[in-house]
Please model this.
Amino acid sequence: MVIVFNPAAGNRRVHRLWRVLDILAANGVRCEVARTTGAGEARELAAAAAASGARQVVAAGGDGTIAEVASGLLGTGAALGVIPLGTANVLAHEYALPFAPRAVAAALAFGRTRPLWPGIAEDAAGGTRPFVQMLGIGFDAAVVHRLSPRPGEPGFSVVLFDRPGPWAALCYGAALPLGRLATAPGIRRLRARVVEVIGNRDLRAQTDGDPAAPAPRIIRDASCVLPLVVG
Model:
C-alpha cells in the first residue's frame, strides 16, 4: 500500500495520518509514504506507484489531493484509498467514508471497493483533465457541494442557471441554505453523458474545487471506472 501524503495539511490533521499508520503497522500492513512537494506531483506519485505494482494507492489530504491521485490511477486497475485530511472532504462525506483513525485503517486493510466513475474535461486545444467529483463554470461552487450526486455510474448531473446577473445570484444564494435551490425559478437539472461548452471561452472554471484553465470545451465520461476503497 502506497500513501500519497500532502504535507500542507495542518498539524491536527497530520496527527490523524500518523494514527492510521500506527494502527496499520500494528496489524502487519506494510505502507510506503510518498510526500508531495507541489501541485501535480500527487498524480505522478500515484501513477508511479501503480506502475510499480501497488494494488492500492491512498490519498492522504483534501479533495484536491484525492483528485490528483485518482487521475494518476485512472486505467491502471489500482484501487483508490482515502485518508481525509482536508477542510471540506466532499468526496469522503458523499461516500460516507470513515474519519476516525481506527475505522480508516480497518477500511484500508479490508480493501472493499465500490465504483467511482470519473469525468474528463477536454479543452479546445485537446488537453484533458480528469475529475472525480465536480466541474463548474461560473456560479457553481455552493451548488455542486449541495447537489452533486455520488459519481458511481456514467454520466453527469448538469445544473443550469437560466437567469444571469447579480440579483439572480443573490436569489440562488439565499435559496441554497433553505434547501429550495432545486425548485427555485430559473434552475434546470439535466442528465447528460457528454456536455459541450459553447460561447464565452473566458469564463472561469474549476474541477474538484481547484482552478481549471483553460475552461473545458467538452465534458465526457472517462473510459473506465476507478475502484474506491470504502471498507
